[in-house]
Design brief:
Number of strands: 16
Helix content: 40-55%
Distance between the termini: 40 Å
Strand content: 15-25%
Bound molecules: pyridoxal-5'-phosphate
Shape: globular
Structural class: alpha/beta
């Protein structure tokens, strides 16, 4: 299996090259040249297997230049019951008849990013050994909150790597900030920026693609890579949980093998829902992919009109991990839907960086509408949904998951479609305690995030994750805040490259 760049399909690299490099030189993203297929027979066999076995089955189809030993090493170390507090790795909960919550947040940082970022450091160090022998990997991360912590936790003290995370100073929850500023490890660094997530992502992309900086690194025997979902190594582990959850539903007798399900995903950078799309196209029976956005509804508008337009106010919401106006992974989907048309993709995405918008062809728009439904909800509706779900089903969900539930309710109302449905639940409610508490009881008794967690535990009867409780006694290590224009300097500082 080889990988092409979305902006130059003549570029052809192995999976380890794609993972080590992160992004293609001309700015395109790496995509598999074809999608391997999973049959209903495979699903039946896999339904009797563990998450780790299912992960190996999916990954070996994509990472064909990894040996069996290498894959076993990566997967078995990443997905342990100890780290995820469950043998299932991802839990499946019944919300109500025919509607299931795929709880992807039982990992060490309490958000779904762990599903990929516990594995990525293994994939990346194995890839670096194959393609960049002896080089130190420098991981730059732009985060809207959850990726940063999950990447730090995955890469901390991993030999041959250094990691630097940029997050928007006013764009993350108190618990998210606490998670990052107290991060332990000798190879980690964290820095707040005075800007939003898009500023952080653009800054990181610019540093990545700067030849001057790359040369400096090269002469120091180092190279950049990415832990953002532009890296193929982030996406491929996400396909696994869609395959695995379908197998679980079959195993539990909830779904007959071959019957399609709908999948609802609270979406920001379009990585998670793209993984569902890939799973569907590999043969997992799926009907609609429902893309749920918050008030930054650039994707809702795009899917409904065919015009992507980021020229709008950036809104800070109570689902901050979805506060994004540039959804990077959409590029991979459009490449696929346009029949691998690298010229069109280059045209559209240079339009995006020049004018902040582009319009896709009718043909692509039709294909988009066939697979996807899109909707959004605002902060008030998000809170109302948290309250309703709790009152009706005694289920406490976080603010991002609530956006998905609300958009799904709207979808059912609008279409009458009663296909069984899987809703991706992307974070523990304890990462966003203030908003969840405001939804469940009218007033906040305290500003302190740990006291809020105790209050939420009393109401929800859900255990506070040990990892979050432990932050209370950890020392703050990183409290620097810089202008966006100072990002390059911050990277140079961290690498002692002045
Ligand atoms: C990252 C994140 C999302 C958005 O996922 P994308 O893959 O960027 O679309 C949704 N919810 C939570 C809690 C997240 O951390």
């Amino acid at each position: 299996m080889f990988y092409n760049s979305t902006r130059n399909s003549g570029i052809k690299v192995s999976s380890s090259q794609a993972i080590a490099q992160g992004i293609s030189k001309e700015g395109g993203l790496f995509v598999p040249e074809s999608l391997p297929q999973i049959t209903l027979e495979d699903i039946k066999l896999l339904s009797e297997k563990s998450y780790v076995e299912r992960a190996k089955f999916v990954l070996e189809k994509f990472l064909t230049d990894f040996s069996q030993e290498e894959l076993n090493y990566c997967v078995e170390n990443a997905y342990t019951a100890e780290k995820f507090k469950t043998d299932h790795i991802a839990e499946l909960a019944h919300l109500y008849n025919g509607t299931y919550m795929l709880e992807l947040w039982h990992g060490p940082t309490c958000a779904f990013k762990d599903m990929a970022l516990q594995l990525l450091p293994y994939l990346l160090t194995v890839s670096a050994k194959k393609t960049a022998q002896g080089k130190e990997m420098v991981i730059l991360v732009a985060t809207s909150g959850d990726t940063g912590k999950a990447a730090l936790e995955g890469f901390k003290d991993v030999e041959g790597t250094q990691i630097l995370v940029f997050y928007p100073e006013d764009g993350v929850s108190a618990m998210q900030k606490r998670q990052m500023t107290t991060q332990e490890g000798s190879n980690v660094s964290v820095c707040a920026i005075k800007g939003n997530f898009d500023d952080a992502q653009n800054g990181v992309k610019a540093i990545f693609t700067s030849e001057e900086i790359a040369n400096k690194l090269e002469s120091n025997n180092r190279m950049f890579s990415s832990a953002n979902s532009i890296n193929w190594g982030r996406l491929v582990p996400q396909i696994v949980y869609y395959v695995s959850s379908y197998c679980e539903l079959v195993k539990a007798g909830e779904v007959e093998c071959g019957s399609p399900i709908n999948v609802v995903v609270p979406t920001g950078n379009f990585g998670n829902i793209l993984a569902a799309y890939y799973a569907k196209n590999m043969g997992i029976p799926m009907n609609k992919l429902i893309c749920a956005s918050n008030a930054n509804k650039v994707l809702t508008d795009f899917i409904n009109t065919g015009t992507y337009d980021r020229n709008r106010e950036f809104k800070t919401t109570i689902s901050p991990s979805m506060d994004i106006l540039i959804s990077s992974n959409l590029e991979r989907l459009l490449y696929e839907l346009s029949g691998n048309n690298d010229k069109l993709i280059s045209e559209w995405f240079s339009g995006l960086s020049k004018d902040g918008k582009y319009t896709v062809s009718d043909d692509v728009k039709q294909k988009l509408e066939k697979d996807f439904y899109a909707g959004y909800c605002d902060d008030n509706q998000t809170k109302q949904t948290i309250k309703t779900i709790f009152d009706k089903y005694s289920y406490t969900c976080d603010t991002h998951t609530a956006v998905a539930v609300k958009v799904y309710e709207d979808y059912k109302q609008n279409t009458g479609d009663d296909t069984k449905t899987l809703i991706a639940s992307t974070a523990s409610p304890y990462k966003f305690t203030d908003s969840v508490l405001e939804a469940l009881c009218d007033e906040l008794k305290t500003e302190n995030e740990f006291e809020q967690a105790v209050q939420l535990a009393e109401i929800s009867k859900l255990k506070i994750p040990q990892e979050l409780l432990a932050l209370k006694n950890k020392e703050i290590r990183f409290n620097k805040s810089i202008e966006v224009s100072e990002m390059t300097e911050a990277v140079m500082d961290m690498l002692h490259l002045k």
